[in-house]
Specification:
The chain is 40% helix and 14% strand. The strands form 3 sheets. It has a 6-stranded parallel beta sheet, with helices on both faces. The chain contains 23 helices and 18 strands. It has 3 domains: 8-172, Rossmann fold, CATH 3.40.50.970; 202-359, TPP-binding domain (Rossmann fold); 378-549, Thiamin diphosphate (ThDP)-binding fold, Pyr/PP domains (Rossmann fold), CATH 3.40.50.970. The radius of gyration is 27 Å and the shape is globular. Helix 12 (350-371) crosses helix 22 (552-569). The protein binds thiamine diphosphate and magnesium ion (MG). Thiamine diphosphate binds next to helix 15 and helix 17.
Length: 600
Amino acid sequence: MKKPCQTNNEYANLIISDLVNLGVSHFCIGSGSRSAPLAEALENNTRATTVVHYDERSLGFYALGLAKGLNSPVCVITTSGSATVNLFPAVMEAYMDHIPLVVITCDRPFEDLDRGTNQTCDQEAIFGSYVDCSKTIPAPPHTFDSAMITSLLSYLIHRVKTTNTPIHINIPFKEPLITETGSNLLVHSITNHLATDSLLCEESLDYIIDIFSSFDKGIIIAGGNCDKGAANDILILGEKLSYPILADPLSGIRELGGSSMIISHYNQILHHVGELSQFKPDVVIFLGGHIISKNVLLWTKALTSSHQIIVSDCKRNIDPTLSINTRVCMKPAHFAKMINNKMIHKPACFYPGLWKSYSLNLNQLIPEFFEQEDTLYEPAVITGLLPLLDTAPFPIFLGNSLSIRYGDNFLFPSSITKRIYGNRGVSGIDGNISTAIGICDALRTPVIAVIGDCTFLHDVGALHLMSKQKTPLILIVINNNGGGIFDFLPYGNNKTLLKNKISPSSDLNVGNIAAAFNIVFWKADNSSDYQKMIEHLLEEKSGGIIEVNTSREENVLIHKKLNAYIEKNINKNLKKERSSYFFMPIKKPQKTKSFAFMDS
Ligand SMILES: Cc1ncc(C[n+]2csc(CCOP(=O)(O)OP(=O)(O)O)c2C)c(N)n1
Ligand SMILES: [Mg+2]
């Protein structure tokens, strides 16, 4: 359940108790009013040791000395205005001398800035490059889950401890600064950061092995860029633990083909039956980076009683569900290898079989649905690649917006194939063609890229590069005359708003643009032509653009029909599989909450 901070008291108490729980027990606070909520929280916290001083310059150096003597992070707090920069000499010294200071400057809220209010200056990032990072958290009342504060502080304190470099947190408070009411004590579990570069210490390893040994119902969620060469070790990890694997299209794991542990069509499974209690795991292991699937994120966020562990060497905080208990800072491949060496094979319980039975059923149902007609619906642009992958594996680049979502939902190769790529760092629709061309040239092998029409429009300049390319790029443009993803979003029914202000028609003539750059161009009207065109280009080792024209309205309809078809048939074939997959008959709850399909 979401617990937002409503008052200054709640917010300040949460910050101080989090810091104390994270091992920061010494606080040095300057005298002032804007910092009063934190002063009161320190007064209430019996585990915090606090020193108050009038001169912030001296206070900063005192905190520096404390941190040196204690050999652990010390927190120094000031009010707003020039009090903040009085800490600068000590912050500079701490930065140059590698001393872990946690610098908190209290601030006025946004609405008081830039209009001449008293004791107000621009405090964001005020210490420039002399801190490892600087964050401003908005003033309460908040609408977001306060677990976000705990997650951020867990990460920041882990960073102070591992880099021995000061960090800065700027915290605005609104007036009245201290109130009598609303001091609920909000408590969230702290993410346990197991600091490591490539090795886990015995104690941490035992802690993790103990969790894995104790729970049979576990799941591995492999996110983007699990790192090169990790796929096999992760697959072995899944097999050893008997934990099924939900592999993001960019994880590098789907390319291993239809292994018994890799669950295809997990989005549809979660959408239709994921709320059933049999699916609830006791352990969730996130590996690597971004996860495209909104269904997966919503589902794991709701698993409040499971152990959630993230393994990533990413230096930023990754906690999209605010439900991570343990973070292991290392490459997923190293982690998988260490666990694989230490663990003995766990016998399979019903759990992987449960997932697999649904995934096998959907492997049949979904192609069956699209094969009923020869119309080249948008998802069929992706499913149409699957038979081709079986005969001549090729790398695939998935453009942002619906193309990558179709990849997430439908691109599950059944045999070993080449890597699937995408730009999910900030999910831009810019530069997608250029990136695919770069991948093509680096791999020196033909690449198939699937993108939307606006994504095409955004990077038309790349066609100049494409026209000169030696290694062929086969560029498939799904032209639905605008941003088709917006039709699926909550405001998707407001067609006037969409058309006028959010996602106007692109009115692109892809053929004319291709001609301007002397690039081979075809329009595919049906599934069989579409596949023949790709086969031809691959055989000829020729690049080219294939346009697939679709309608946004029809696309929404076909998704509804597909959902209805799956809903009707999802349990049908399972009875046959009962004996081989330990299938347990499932009773559906009365109300199934429908999961969000996608966001832009
Ligand atoms: C550089 C950039 N600008 C804007 C966006 C916001 N955005 C997300 S999806 C989208 C529409 C993309 O349309 P199209 O390429 O035709 O794909 P479709 O939605 O039709 O699949 C936009 C504008 C973005 N992600 N990146
Ligand atoms: Mg489009």
